[in-house]
Automatic annotation (TrEMBL):
<feature type="compositionally biased region" description="Basic and acidic residues">
    <location>
        <begin position="242"/>
        <end position="263"/>
    </location>
</feature>
<dbReference type="InterPro" id="IPR036457">
    <property type="entry name" value="PPM-type-like_dom_sf"/>
</dbReference>
<dbReference type="Pfam" id="PF13672">
    <property type="entry name" value="PP2C_2"/>
</dbReference>
<dbReference type="InterPro" id="IPR001932">
    <property type="entry name" value="PPM-type_phosphatase-like_dom"/>
</dbReference>
<protein>
    <recommendedName>
        <fullName>PPM-type phosphatase domain-containing protein</fullName>
    </recommendedName>
</protein>
<feature type="domain" description="PPM-type phosphatase">
    <location>
        <begin position="10"/>
        <end position="235"/>
    </location>
</feature>
<feature type="region of interest" description="Disordered">
    <location>
        <begin position="242"/>
        <end position="274"/>
    </location>
</feature>
Length: 274
């Protein structure tokens, strides 16, 4: 299978906290949840370490075993826990976490899993694209945010507001009625959105971290059809480049309020019948 992958940090001076990979019929994007300055985690490891560790172990489990995708994710979370439970406080509410979107060829179907706000987009020939994303985090954020309090990006007020929001989100993370992410609780895998679609008639598969889906779901500058067309014609790297141009046009977030001016962006793109 020929798979196109692009991943790029939002800030060249910082580590990329995304992990994107493909192997033996499995496609995967893990988007580490970046921690604002001042947030304690109880962990000596970085978010990028967590995303890479989880991604590598999850890819191996999904490729090498007959486990379902939720089972594979639960095992991968347990194995990452084992890597650092002796030196880190895994009960700390600020432990590193990540969103997960993955797909795997299973016979004549493609099965998928989405946990938190990364995006899976399936091009279904003449039908509307099937877009799968877990909006529970967004619903919690909408409850916490005051739309009238949106200080410009880069200001001390914005940084303080972001830290406060993340601290409040910890109360809802991996809790019933809140939202679910990959972190230290293997049972979060059972809360992922899952499904399968026939490979016949499937034109393309795109896995996007939320930093790469911004043109459509945050900026509103492209439909999902148009995003898929851009991937088909220009590839993942150009999609990220276009996203960076739009972000640069709104450096203080006045047009598109957001937590980060530029976010880590990752795309895995596959056309099954090419």
């Amino acid at each position: 299978m020929r798979v196109l992958i692009a991943t790029e940090p939002g800030n060249p001076a910082r580590d990329n906290e995304d992990f994107a990979a493909a192997a033996s019929g499995v496609l995967l994007v893990v988007d580490g949840a970046g921690a604002p300055a001042g947030l304690e985690s109880g962990c000596s490891h970085s978010v990028s370490w967590y995303a890479r560790s989880l991604g590598g172990l999850l890819l191996a489990e999904a490729v090498n075993t007959g486990a379902s995708l939720p089972e594979a994710l639960a095992v991968a979370i347990e194995r990452v826990n084992a890597l650092h439970q002796d030196v880190c406080d895994l009960a700390h509410p600020g432990s590193p976490s990540a969103t997960v979107v993955m797909a795997r060829v299973a016979g004549d179907h493609l099965e998928y899993l989405v946990l938190s706000d990364s995006v899976l987009v399936l091009d279904q020939a003449d039908d509307e694209p099937l877009v799968v994303t877990d909006d529970r985090l967004g619903r919690v954020i909408a409850k916490l945010d005051d739309p009238d309090e949106r200080p410009p990006l880069g200001t001390d007020e914005h940084a303080a507001g972001l830290l406060s929001r993340v601290q409040k989100l910890a109360l809802y993370r991996n809790q019933p009625g809140g939202f679910w992410v990959a972190s230290t609780k293997p049972e979060a895998a059972g809360q992922a959105l899952t499904g399968s679609v026939p490979l016949e008639g499937l034109g393309a598969v795109a896995l996007l971290s939320d930093g790469a889906s911004r043109l459509t779901d945050r900026f509103g500058l492209a439909t999902w059809h148009e995003l898929l067309a851009a991937l088909r014609k220009e590839g993942p790297r150009e999609l990220i480049a276009r996203t960076r141009e739009v972000e640069a046009s709104d450096p203080d977030g006045s047009r598109w309020p957001r937590g980060k001016a530029s976010d880590d962006a990752s795309v895995v793109y596959w056309r099954p019948h090419e």
